[in-house]
Amino acid sequence: MPLPYILVLYYSRYGATAQMANLMARGINSVTGIDAMVRTVPPVSPITEVATPPVPETGAPYVTLHELKDCAGLALGSPTRFGNMAAPLKHFIDSTSGLWLTGDLSGKPAAVFSSTASLHGGQETTLISMMLPLLHQGMIMMGIPYTEQALLTTKTGGTPYGASHLAGSDSKLPISEEEKTLCMALGKRLANIAIKLAG
Asked: 20 to 30 Å CA-CA from 131: which of 35, 88, 108, 142?
């Protein structure tokens, strides 16, 4: 019988959020009895274009509603767009009303993570914007407690609302050691809670 999994779902334009997703997955996979499934969403465009291929050329596969429905928990990640989640991720979330009607995500744990260009570029509002539809779905939100020492020492990203990264105006700043620690800690916490909730 396959192990239950935490779905690590993200959108990434320049790669920082994808790196964070992989760190979240490492934290999840450090817990025995549960796996991480890393997935992304296709970009959206304001103009009509040729349909996106069903499988991206590089990186994680595109998510399906079935994978979201069957997850034991969810880690949701997005770069900041004016203090909000990016449109491709919001587009996918807006397609989940069927899961809302059936309550398939209700009672499952969730966490969020984000990357921004500037230190005060909306990390916390982006994290909160991702929480709102998950709360409507009945998911149990979790953040990072201050028992994680890196939350007290970070000079870049990291909040009690979720993991975050300061990417810089050119999106080239590496993920700091504290940011890595907090991503993995949040992934591990999410996995442990998912196992406890599953009984």
From this structure: 35
